[in-house]
Amino acid sequence: MSSLGRLAITIPSPFHNARECVDLARKAEDEWGYEAIWMAETAGPDSFTLAGAIAQATQRVEIGTAIVPVYNRTPAVLAMSAGTLDQLSEGRFILGLGSSSHAIMRDWNGVDFHAPLGHVRESVEIIRSALSGEKTDYAGKHFRSKGLRLGSVPERPMRIYLAALREKMLRLAGAHGEGLIINFQPLGAMPQILEAYRAGAQEAGRDATNDEVVCRFQVCVTDDKEKARAIVRMAFGGYLSAPVYNKFLAWCGYKEEARAIAEGFATKDRAAVAAAMHDELVDSIAILGTPDECREQLAAFVAAGVTTPVLSPLATSPDAAAAVFETFAPAQA
Q1: Is 195 found in the same domain as 281?
Q2: What is the number of structural domains in the chain?
Q3: Does one domain contain both 79 and 228?
Q4: d(C-alpha 41, C-alpha 167), whole Å
Q5: pTM tops 0.90
Q6: Looking at the chain, which terminus has fewer C-beta neighbours within 10 angstroms, N or C?
């Protein structure tokens, strides 16, 4: 592993439609030399449809979801989708699951966003049972499944990675997953994140020391850091005001900033939100600067335990987004 870890790209990519994203995936494998592509799912293409197209367009790269939520698809549907993608990719697919957020689940999908720990745990238990080829017989507090025998059982056990932010979910991820997916964490929070994840694994009788740690980084290659910071504030102020990320920010040591962001967003005071996202905070959660400065920042996260940095371009055009992927292409290292 290089000092930049096992570099991957995120898809969808800004300003690229679904067909163009498939073309980017081909390029990521054939020209740029990336080893993995991780699918993000918000309001753009759904991860499973796009992952299926990418699986057919590529031969080597791993394809993972980071993440699909456990609320707006049943465990049976998630298992069927994962089994299908395992076949389409010939075993290259990794299922990344998480709880998502209040905005996406409650507001966009109209789904009651409650008890995320229980929903994630029960989903994983049903999905694992189905993917093993067993006939499901599960009745939990949040989900149940009886009599499902999956028709697309993977030839090898599928890897399931779980997304987590704070202590309880990190411990659950360690106990029930085989890899960890994180996002927006400051560099200084990496020790407590990994400690909680590995403690959960240990309690379950599992050694997570060598587990893959996947992290999506917002990356802006620029000589104008002030402008880049302004983009981060504009794009992610609302993100950090959402309860799950706001509490995570406080847990990472930014309690006053988290409070000010939440209060500013609630009162529609964008200036207050921007002020709370001071330079040090923005620089701790985003990768900004010249190519060499960005590499140095990514290398620091890899040294702290991230194994797979996933590049997500902060760009204003499709060409600029693709240029980020090309700048850090492993084939050019």
Answers
A1: no
A2: 2
A3: no
A4: 24
A5: yes
A6: N
